[in-house]
């Protein structure tokens, strides 16, 4: 590896969602700044000037005539706040290289911190803000921009006092349940004997408004309110649990916040769903009152994953929280991107929940107490069980985070695949396995759908699939679809 990209593999590079090439034959292209904004607002990436892209997705060098002048123009422009809202780069992020006798310029754009977003150009917040997906750069919607602005604030949204309501909207049974859990977990805590209104204030569920009266905070409303009150503050609020254990039945069990036969709040949803998930985990587990008996690492990991999903939800965004339980798989989806970035989340050590008061309240009853370690702990538990590696996915427009947990053993690599692995990079092999799993789940699929799932361009996805001998192509041209080879194809039956 030399600097920002691997020169030895240049001829193998193809543009994907974290690499962008531009010829820059007439100076800095206008689209450079769109790509800068999109990488900064997404997961970072590298822009290479002096490079073109062939029809098959492979690269070729065009070279730069005066790279020093180009660099000067670049730095002058990126420091101009009328052109770029913030400069995220230093000298180490911009390097020139000689490739095939041509000079190219590589610009490494990091993912912006949430406090720095949205990154936009031309002094136009709503017209000059971009993000990156598998198809390339795209204009951010107003909803995406507003979401980034919410995340950039020092105070999280759940700290705000909702003055349109008084504390009578708090569901007394939910609050009673919380206090019982709190007392059981911390029997000597000084809050235990407080009057309920003072208790609400101390835990962050209520606060005094400008009228001098006590009102719920958004955290208190989400945690303990009735659903029909919650949606007045969060019109997109929706919690959904779907159980699919019998393929002949669409839903073997379903729990929705909007059903009207229970509170529909976050607190009750957590405990109802956790109970439904825990009872089918193939590990010994039981409850004695509210005391956990034989609480296994798997149960704790699932519990942490569920609370992580709920406290990191942007409740202003559409599609809601969706928990899906299948016989050997659990999927948790929530509106909102990953505030720390996917890499940092997997690494652990930094806690930055989207709803800090909700997190605090769950901590008070012994859930999610290890700040910043939730996802790494889940990965460790799954590794110890020998189960398939958990998958974290982040998508935009609308922002959404998805965690998939499989209760199945890792698949051994076949001998035939090991020979291929000698010639294929680990990263490509990983993508190929994701493609296989996608086709196992979805059957006959279009290239565009596969490419979106693995977060690569269609051209790069085609290249990956072309090296997979177990893929069958059906149809031609625009109707072309892909599936895994089966026993009929191999002539065994």
Give structural attributes.
disordered C terminus; alpha+beta; Arc Repressor Mutant, subunit A; 16 helices; Methyltransferase, Cobalt-precorrin-4 Transmethylase, Domain 2; Heat Shock Protein 90
Task: Give a verbal description of the structure.
The protein has 493 residues and is of the alpha+beta class. The chain has 3 domains: 7-141, Schlafen, AAA domain (Methyltransferase, Cobalt-precorrin-4 Transmethylase, Domain 2, 2-Layer Sandwich); 157-406, Heat Shock Protein 90; 415-484, Winged helix-like DNA-binding domain superfamily/Winged helix DNA-binding domain (Arc Repressor Mutant, subunit A, Orthogonal Bundle). The protein has helices at residues 31-41, 67-78, 142-152, 172-185, 196-203, 218-224, 227-233, 266-278, 297-311, 342-347, 356-364, 374-385, 415-423, 426-442, 447-454, 458-466; strands spanning 19-22, 45-49, 51-53, 59-61, 94-99, 102-109, 130-133, 136-139, 206-208, 214-216, 239-244, 253-256, 286-288, 291-293, 321-326, 329-335, 391-395, 400-406, 445-446, 471-474, 481-484. The strands form 7 sheets. The chain has a 6-stranded mixed beta sheet, with helices on one face. Strand 3 and strand 4 (59-61) form a beta hairpin. The longest helix is centred in the last third of the chain and has 17 residues, at 426-442. It is globular, with a radius of gyration of 26 Å. Mean pLDDT is 86; it is low at 418-424 and 487-493.
